[in-house]
Amino acid sequence: MQRQGIDEEGYLVDPMDWNEEVAREFANIENIDLTEDHWDAIRFMRQYYAEHQVAPDVRHVMKHLAERLGAESRNRIFELFPYGYVKQACKIAGMKRPRAWSTG
């Protein structure tokens, strides 16, 4: 995907440029078929961003999924995005690359 507003690592420069089509394009690049659980995590991340103007820490998304899917799903985020929260979840959800996190 060649698109304006993408940094050298493939993240959106401005998270406000995100929409569901962008998410589908990024997911396709990452070889992820978006399921309802993916969308639930992504929508939570977008809502968190709208409220706090920062990407949520992975623990917030883990807690959200556990509340919806049950405590045994605590690590579901890592099943949904196997190559890392930052590399895949943040990118697909249209977050800027979080500076404080070097891996996923």
TrEMBL record:
UniProt entry keywords in alphabetical sequence: Cytoplasm
Assigned GO CC terms: cytoplasm
GO MF term list: sulfur carrier activity
Single GO biological process annotation from the record: tRNA wobble position uridine thiolation
Keyword set includes Cytoplasm: yes
Source species, domain of life: Bacteria
Entry similarity comment: Belongs to the DsrC/TusE family.
Organism taxonomic ancestry: Bacteria, Pseudomonadati, Pseudomonadota, Betaproteobacteria, Nitrosomonadales
UniProt source species: Sideroxyarcus emersonii
Keyword Cytoplasm set for record: yes
Main location: cytoplasm
One Pfam family named in its UniProt record: DsrC
Name recorded for this polypeptide: Sulfurtransferase TusE
InterPro entries: DsrC-like_C, DsrC-like_dom_sf, DsrC-like_N, DsrC/TusE
Cellular location(s): Cytoplasm
